[in-house]
Amino acid sequence: METVLEVRDIVTRFHADVVHDGVSFTVQRGEVLALIGGSGTGKSVLLKEMIGLLRPTAGSVRLLGADVWQADEEQMNGLRRRFGMLFQDGALFSSLTVAENIAVPFREHTDLPEALIAPLVGFKLSLVGLDPDTGRKTPAELSGGMRKRVALARALALEPEILFLDEPTSGLDPIGARAFDKLVRALSDSLGLTVFMVTHDLDTLLSIIDRTIALSKGKVIADGPIAEVMKSEHPWIQEYFSARAPHEEGTR
Amino acid sequence: MAGAPRWIAPALEDGANVLYLQGRWRLPHVPGIAAEIDALRLAGDHCVLDGSRLEELDTAAGFLLLRRLAALGCVSGTVEVRDMADGHARLLTLVRERMATPSVAAPSGRHALLQRLGRATVRLGRILRAQVAFLGEVGLELAALVRRPRLFRFKETVSQFEVVTLDAIPIVALVTFLIGVVFAYLLGVQAQRFGATIFVVDGVGIAICRELSPILVAVIVAGRSGAAFTAQIGSMKVQEETDAIRTLGLSTIQVLVVPRLVAIMAGLPLLVFVGDLAGIAGGILIGAAQLDISPSAFIARLHTVLPMTAFVVGVAKAPVFAAFIALIACRMGLSVARDARSVGEHTTSTVVQSIVWVIVLDAAFAVALQRLGV
């Protein structure tokens, strides 16, 4: 197994607030991994630190063999072509149409001629389950779920090896959320994609995730398959899963 | 294509087309791969994809291959896959399942001149109509305020007044002072030729008080506060704050528009007064430095030649300008669509519309007052 992501002793402080106090874990190629934790435990912050958007106070991140915070701009650009990121609300460029949004990575990072970009954009849309005609719309005309799918298509444009997702199913209805889960899993299975997601969605955790990392009070408190994590004695984890338990038993 | 094919080696084996895919079929190589794919010819509509020499494959390359094969008549039933790594075969299956009829999603191009003219005209008509409707709405809310004065948001109005008026004093004073300096200097150069430098006082006093100060102040406030109103209200609209206001049973006009309208209508005349003082101060400076008019002589002359009406006309125009700026800015803010680009467009539009209206109104005032003999 090849390690594609290695987070070592990350410490993050905002003024007096200690967000992360020595967070470490590794991710192997092809894993679908979830990061869970209560609100304000710095999950999104950690995600930003892993992709080079926010510098941690201390510690290192090795992504696809390169140290994110030691790499120069050229190396970093090489890296950026090899991972995709789905932001929480999609972060589509509102001045561009959907098709132009997806075409941005092609235009900026490849020499593909326009004649190839148009059909590839259409294909990426159908890959995430959208009608290629959606390409003509502007992001403002889309529903939340569609926006996330378009953002996923954009994140997948350059055929990334790792996909980072920030709460991919939040704000989606259960049907849309499960469809999104299935899509991510299918892409991971057939493309060999490594997926690292921050999520609160227990259904996602229970259905498509290989491994779960739980974060609490700035530390990793559990790391393993969901069944193992659920057995943890840690009070936060107990509470997290028991909040759901009665309903869970009722439906099964 | 010269030389041996680099990506696809076609062969005929037992009467069947066999395509040996070779090398790393990844996005950076797609232009070359696409060229070979497009040159592909098949005998019949059956083909076998041999993956024994294939090192890597991604969805873009897979999609282009399957699309070309489909165009040549090979669809899922007639394409066979052999000796292919599991991952690659799964990828091709996924691509085939997800492949829709590819329609070109090109950006919605440019419009012809006449079409654009028509669209712009219709849009202008819509803006004017919406503006009138908005004016009516605000009028109704103001009438409601007369019946129930408790609805008036005093705190919000005062805080808007502070931002719109007090915070604008330095920039207003600076700009009108400099215009006073420039105006007095230019006038002085002309007047000196006739030895009539004292008339510079008349010119500066009347021009600043009646025209220059109101116009400049209105333009500054349109750029400063008008833009801010649109951007603030527009962002609130994007964040659904305006919906929240309405859901709480409040009126967006009462909460957002009226305080701004009142603050700017009360503030602009005061700013015009500040502008008058600063502009005249600029005139005094040039008078003393260049034209041998001492400050006391300047002020004494001003007392006799500056009619009260010039000052009153200038200050009285201000609330009218203010009302237009506030109404345009607030309406543009409330009509923002839910995206960032729209906030920018509407803010620009507010500044342009307000400045144009200020100048149009000023011209109307000049003509009307002339006719009335004021």
Question: Could you explain how this protein is built, in words?
Answer:
The complex is a heterodimer of chains A (252) and B (374). With 252 residues, chain A is of the alpha/beta class. Chain A has two domains: 1-82 and 164-170 and 184-252, Rossmann fold (3-Layer(aba) Sandwich), CATH 3.40.50; 93-159, no CATH class. Helices cover 40% and strands 25% of the residues of chain A. Chain A contains ten helices and ten strands. Chain A has helices spanning 43-50, 73-80, 98-109, 114-127, 144-156, 174-191, 202-208, 226-231, 235-242, 245-251; strands at residues 3-14, 17-28, 32-37, 58-63, 66-67, 83-86, 162-166, 194-198, 211-216, 219-224. In chain A, the strands form two sheets. Chain A has a six-stranded mixed β-sheet with strand order 6-7-8-3-9-10, with helices on both faces. In chain A, strands 2-1-4-5 form a four-stranded antiparallel β-sheet, with helices on one face. The two termini of chain A are 35 Å apart. Chain B is α/β, with parallel strands linked by helices and 374 residues long. Chain B has two domains: 8-98, 2-Layer Sandwich (Transcription Regulator spoIIAA), CATH 3.30.750.24; 128-372, no CATH class. Chain B has helices spanning 30-38, 59-71, 86-98, 113-147, 154-164, 169-193, 199-238, 241-247, 252-290, 295-305, 308-334, 340-372, and strands spanning 8-13, 16-25, 47-57, 79-82. A four-stranded mixed β-sheet of chain B has the order 1-2-3-4. In chain B, helix 4 crosses helix 9 (252-290), helix 6 (169-193) runs parallel beside helix 9 (252-290) and helix 7 (199-238) packs antiparallel against helix 12. The interface between A and B is large, with 39 and 35 residues.
